[in-house]
Specification:
The chain has two helices and eight strands. A hairpin with a 5-residue loop joins strand 7 (111-117) and strand 8. The termini are far apart. It has a single domain (13-62, 75-129), classed as 2,3-Dihydroxybiphenyl 1,2-Dioxygenase, domain 1. Helices cover 15% and strands 36% of the residues. The chain has helices at 19-29, 88-97; strands at residues 13-16, 33-40, 43-51, 54-60, 80-84, 106-108, 111-117, 123-129. The protein is globular, with a radius of gyration of 17 Å. It has a four-stranded mixed beta sheet with strand order 1-4-3-2, with helices on one face. The protein has a four-stranded mixed beta sheet with strand order 5-8-7-6, covered by helices on one side. The longest helix has 11 residues, at 19-29. By secondary structure, the protein is an alpha/beta fold.
């Protein structure tokens, strides 16, 4: 069946411990827009976030009841998502100006790369092509 699948998009689904805190991070901090949501008994339970050609889904896990889940640690540990973009340095400056913790960009594999950790430990990398030498550290 190689090459015959009709895949249009892949969208990461993140289980989060506090959806309101995650929304502050993704919407106010990174600039995502909530384009779809599920509200259950007056509480936001799930949402679809969009930023240009990228999308994420967030759902707060239930801490009580028949479908509750208690993770052993931070749910995002070990999960990395890479966003290929036009200008990772601009994203670095923007995210930093909003007071979020962001790693100083460096060049790896011909790309400027910067990293942000979300509140649940998911590692978000933003990268863009460059002709700068490998392992160069951004100084601006």
């Amino acid at each position: 069946m190689k090459g015959k699948w009709n895949i249009k998009q892949v969208v990461p689904f993140f289980a989060v411990s506090d959806i309101d805190r995650s929304l502050l991070f993704y919407v106010n901090g990174l600039g995502f827009e909530m384009t779809n949501k599920w509200i259950d008994e007056g509480k936001l339970r799930w949402c679809w976030l969009q930023l240009a050609g990228a999308a994420l889904m967030l759902q707060e896990f239930n801490k009580q009841g028949h479908d509750s889940w208690t993770p052993e640690g931070k749910v995002g540990v070990g999960v990395s998502i890479y966003f290929t973009c036009e200008d990772a340095l601009a994203i670095y400056r923007d995210v930093k100006s909003k007071g979020l913790q962001v790693k100083i960009p460096f060049v790896g594999n011909g790309m400027w790369v910067t990293e942000v950790l979300d509140p649940d430990g998911y590692r978000l990398f933003f990268e863009s092509p460059t002709d700068q030498p490998e392992e160069r550290i951004f100084s601006g």
